[in-house]
Task: structure prediction
Amino acid sequence: MSQITEKICLAFEQRRTLKVDNSETDGTSLWLFGNKIAEWREGEIWITNAGWQSKTTKERLNGLTGVSITQRAGSWYINGNFWQGEWTSVNENNGIVSTPLEEVQFDITSKWIASGKYSKPIYSVAHEYSLADLFAYECLLNANGIKYRIIESDTEGEYKPNYFVVVEPQNVELAISLINN
Result:
């Protein structure tokens, strides 16, 4: 994390005024290149990417407490949940960001598929050879509040990645019905 991000985010969270290079806060809002990317609302921090899915925007937002934005296949995820950059509360009680996926326990026990020569997690609901091809499944599961994890399996004899979407056992039937419709 850059020094600018550390300084500006600390000032914003402490509700102090500060201007550093391309970032500014009045203690109520946080701006990057003149675009408001965070603000305090009734004691909660709300964030947006302000329409800019840039490395700098992601870094500034990641400098805030409770925010973990990652990127996969060109899409942004906030604390493990698909995010299009709309205004979102990062209050720990907010359902969108309250439980990072790393805290959910997934059974990734696999069974060997001889015909495909790969191991398949027993609670997988989708399989692709490219991470990017899983994007539609991720969006569908996120929209329906189903927690998931992406797993890469073993392949016999050569490196050919197999990617699976794995859900919790109690959500397998629902996830499969959503995917097949």
The helical segments are 3-13, 55-62, 135-143, 172-180. Confidence is low (pLDDT under 50) at residues 93-104.
